Amino acid sequence: KQEVTQIPAALSVPEGENLVLNCSFTDSAIYNLQWFRQDPGKGLTSLLLIQSSQREQTSGRLNASLDKSSGRSTLYIAASQPGDSATYLCAVPNSGGSNYKLTFGKGTLLTVNP
Amino acid sequence: EAGVAQSPRYKIIEKRQSVAFWCNPISGHATLYWYQQILGQGPKLLIQFQNNGVVDDSQLPKDRFSAERLKGVDSTLKIQPAKLEDSAVYLCASSLGLAGGLATGELFFGEGSRLTVL
Question: Which of A28, A85, B1, B89 could form a Cys-Cys staple with B112, CB 3.0–4.6 A?
């Protein structure tokens, strides 16, 4: 059974700082990995999806890396802003095919202080 | 492009009452998921549909939860009777699903329906 762990559970940083969020998973035979953002009281917004054949994916100030062999992914946020404050979740699928479904970590609550 | 629509956004009921949530996925998305997210936890899959068929409902408490996706588009999730521990946000997500035999994986989520059971 796939298990996803995110460290740290919470992180508070001053504005402008670069930061890294960590995600680890127990079954390295993944199809891809997806990072989400969740604002309080809101649904999940997809940030980045990394296919298993890729090592990293970038979108603006966000860079996600994937190391399948070690069962790890990191989300790097450059020059953090107060608007980045949210919970960040990573998720991996159990397999491809028709029974494709995601297992989520508990998330990292990020607070960026002005 | 319209996103995943859910309603109601908020619902407060007393235990043993019933409640229903509705979801309209992104147009053309074959796969629809219902997730339950308890405060402080990551979302947990309740049920997955491929078109109007159930792919996985192994974690759905079938004694009180039911879901359907008639005509392979909209879906309804029902809880009857509700318990205190059902207080959570119910998230609906959709994805393109199978394309050429391979799952196109990216999931898109709605805003969620927050349920409080008193």
Answer: B89
Q: Does A101 touch chain B (CB under 8 A)?
A: yes
Evaluate whether B106 touches A49 at the Cβ level (below 8 Å): yes
Q: Which of A45, A38, A59 is nearest to B4 (CA)?
A: A45
Q: Phi/psi at B49 (nearest 5 deg)?
A: -110, 145
* CA distances from residue B1 to A3, B4, B27, B33 in whole angstroms, order as listed: 33, 10, 9, 19
pLDDT at B100: 42
CB-CB contact of A59 with A49 (8 Å): no
Residues 6+ apart with CB under 8 A from A9: A106, A107, A108, A109
Per residue in A6-55, pLDDT tens? 999 999 999 999 999 999 999 888 888 999 999 988 899 999 988 888 89
β-partners of residue B22 are: B7, B76
**Which of A78, A61, A16, A102 lies closest to B42 in space, CA to CA?**
A102
Interface residues of B toward A, Cβ cutoff 8 Å, are 4, 6, 31, 33, 40-45, 48, 50, 55-56, 91, 93, 95, 97-98, 102-103, 105-112, 114
Count chain A–chain B contacts defined by CB atoms under 8 A.
72
Q: Has residue B56 got a pLDDT over 80? A: yes
The pLDDT tens digits of the residues spanning B19-43 come to 999 999 999 888 899 999 999 899 9
